[in-house]
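We treat protein structure as text, and this decision shapes the records that our systems exchange. The remainder of this section carries one protein's record, kept here as part of the documentation:
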Amino acid sequence: MKKSLQIILIALFVACNANAQQEKGIMGYSNWLNNWTEFKPNKVDYGEANQILAGKITVNTKLMKKNIYVLQGNVYVTNNAVLTIEPGTLIIGDFDSKGTLVITKGSSIIADGLETDPIVFTSNKTVKKAGDWGGIVILGDAPINKFGNISSVNYDLDPSLTTYGGDNAASNSGILRYVRIEFAGKKVKGSGNMNALTLAGVGSKTTLENVMASFAGGDSFDMIGGDLNITKFVSYKSINNDFKFTQGTQCKVYNSLAVRSSYLTSNKEGSRCMEVASYDKKEETDFTKKQTLVTAANITMLNDSENISADIQSGLVKEAIYVGNNAALELKRSVISGFNPAVVLDSKIEINDANLKKIKFEEMYFNLCKGNIFTEFNSNNEDLENWYGNSIFFNVYSQSNNSETFIDISNPKRPDYRLNIGKITASNK
């Protein structure tokens, strides 16, 4: 009887431990990437546009699935109008005029697609490339940490129509759900590249779920201030950052994916899965306001390469996460695989208990990284390794190939980036 009880307890322990491991990174009983995502968008024939979107949209407007729309130039939704987009609708960004959709402050977008019928924004080029068109910009009146609590987006847009910021943290700019944004991020003279999706001063009642940005010329997702809740966001092989947070963003990110390529990166400063900063310009920042806080769980960040070690040796790979001074990041139950190193902290961050309690890494799975957590420009990370390597954080370290680490990342149509606990041989450091 006693022996049977021991066997039962051991089985329960193994089962609990397996479940705890499986919860790291993106999760779900099934692969939630199925049906609505597209990892080979350049191979899709989307057809020709039969309707034009241009100028200002000043009244409530509905885009229908039966049409294909071309986005010409900068299109602004203004005057508190609501732009509603039916599931399955296709909007094509014009290459020549660098089509861009801007939802101005007070207006909203209802792009509520379906898993089997997503809304797609893509390029009108025959051979599509990153930066073919502008992107989507959503502006709200939630708080930012700049003086005056208001600012304006640049990107060669009309400054009178691109202000954002205010006092309404719970504001509602609409719905983005089951939406794909492909080949956005046009080059802007003097301002770098636009982003696939820019969320500036957007409030917490905005629904942001199941959004995929692929092959962006700039960042896939740029969160500027605001109070946001993001679930099941997918960034696939962007040129710049996958997720960027600045200007006092208060953001919760859950069950989301960033897939990088060693051969796609910004020449200026490199590219990361996450860049967490409190400001762009310190002199414009009001430090009496909230500084950037990102709370994230079940995030998978990987460098998709057949030979990560060689790419690291060649200098093609950098860190997955960068945390700036005065910013806070709480990351739990997440996977970082194939980077050099996993995390870099700004050189201005003093390594002490107070600062490290604002930068949390718990129940993490660090895999195939050349080093884990470092301070910028400092190769001696003994103090950080001692802190985050403490067993109370339950962080796990491994050197397994991506093909062994994830269930099926080589499937061209339906890759599965969930952690493959059956093949990993991880151990506590």
